[in-house]
């Protein structure tokens, strides 16, 4: 009887340790996912605070928060449609 009691007590402690350890691991992963929010009033504020942006993106202050945005491509002026030939 004493051995089964000791083994159930050991299993209980191991289960509690596993739950606590997995909770700590999940908290550390969640902290690394969130980005730091940098408050700004202009794009210059974001540049002054050295807000990082990957290469194809452009730094901008949107709704008082520094963000990285894509620029809209302006290739519509470069599309040349052939003029229809007029035959009389």
TrEMBL record:
Signal peptide span: 1-30
Lineage top rank: taxon: Eukaryota
Keywords, ordered alphabetically: Membrane, Signal, Transmembrane
Full protein name: Transmembrane protein, putative
Naturally occurring in which organism (per UniProt): Medicago truncatula
